Amino acid sequence: MGRCKSTNTTQTSTNSSNNFEGANIRFRDADDKEIASNSSNLDDSIVAVDKASEDVSMGEPDVSFFGCDGEDDKTSADYYFDSYSHFGIHEEMLKDVVRTKTYQNVIYRNKFLFQNKVVLDVGAGTGILSLFCAKAGAAHVYAVECSHMADMDKQIVETNGLSDVVTVLKGKIEEIELPVAKVDIIISEWMGYFLLFENMLNTVLYARDKWLQAMMEPLVDTVDQKQIVTNCHLLKTMDISKMVPGDASFTAPFKLIAERDDYIHAFVAYFDVSFTKCHKLMGFSTGPRSRATHWKQTVLYLEDVLTICEGEAIIGSMTVAPNKKNPRDVDIMVKYSLSGRRCVVSRVQFYKMR
Questions:
Q1: Sheet with 118-122, side-by-side order of all strands
Q2: Residue range 130-177, pLDDT digits in tens
Q3: Where is this region: Disordered (predicted)?
Q4: Which residues are catalytic?
Q5: Calpha distance 232→223 (Å, rounded)
Q6: Is 253 helix (H, G, I), strand (E, B) or coil?
Q7: pTM above threshold 0.70
């Protein structure tokens, strides 16, 4: 059982009334320097500020609405989207080096996550994240933006020569229809002041539930043995001297017992190889506690984070079979349940190796 850690960062920024000059905006990235590992964006989550020594502005965007038909009928939600039609707020966010470069570094340093994937950018703004994903090798990116900035996004995408990869859709996530039934990745810079200001999180969750709950793709990566939370369980032994076609499909039960109190984010699968006809038994393991091989390990992420206590057991089964349309792909079904002091869950999850 592997425990895969993740972090979430927040940022605040002031607002500017400056405008971009013209519509031909090209984002440069190849020659830009990356953020140092000791960047101050990892400082304390909350700090006290002496008003006498520093004036902190936390006001809303400086947006003026002039008289127009139907203005009295507008709600706060309408003004929210209108505020993001102005270039100034986007310029301020783009100039936030910590914010923009961190997203860029995360995407570019993990291109394996984006290559040949379909990506949905929720609240695309200027489309900068969509462009990053496209340059990281995404098969296609759908950039959804509700404000009038969406009209400018199309010109930005065209100027960067990515019109064949990035499609800009204008509208609210809750109202639009995507040209595809499901996407592989959802990316969004949804955080507001005090993290939750602007209430965009619900929009991201809506998109997740509508377009991302398809068959998940396992991640092939090296897992730190310190992240292993449970014992291991042998699923199947394959003797190729005796196997017949079809034996690669199987269903096997498992029982994983926690060796400490911890959180569980994923199952980790690997295999051992033995040369049994030698005078002396020889072989190797591809497990996380052995020397790394190019096979690495296969990480099956869980939909929920499980809280487990030492001695508690996750009971379940794994079903493995070649995909019917493409026999070289592998379909995986995992049934698992935990009835512990801090967590009770029972789920079935599907994965596809492709």
A1: 166-170, 140-145, 118-122, 185-187
A2: 999 999 999 999 999 999 899 999 999 999 999 999 999 999 999 999
A3: 1-23
A4: 189, 198
A5: 14
A6: strand
A7: no
pLDDT at position 181, please? 87
- Say yes or no to pLDDT of 341 above 50: yes
Contact 301, 113 (CB under 8 A): no
Q: Convert the pLDDT of each residue in 238-261 to its tens digit.
A: 999 999 989 999 999 999 999 999
CA distances from 84 to 89, 223, 224 (A): 7, 41, 42
Domains of the chain (ranges, CATH numbers): 76-213 (3.40.50.150), 216-353 (2.70.160.11)
The number of C-alpha atoms within 13 Å of 104 and in the hemisphere containing its C-beta is: 19
Cα–Cα distance, 282 to 274 (Å, whole number): 6
Helix (H) or strand (E) holding 320: strand 313-322
Strands 185-187 and 118-122: parallel
Instruction: Please tell me the total number of residues recorded for the chain in this structure.
Output: 354
The CA–CA distances, whole Å, from 95 to 5, 112, 312, 326 equal 29, 27, 49, 46
- Residue 282, CA distances (Å) to 153, 236, 272, 277 in order: 59, 19, 11, 9
Query: H or E segment at 207?
Result: helix 201-211
Q: Among 208, 235, 215, 221, which residue's Cα sits nearest to residue 333?
A: 215
Partners of residue 187 on adjacent β-strands: 121
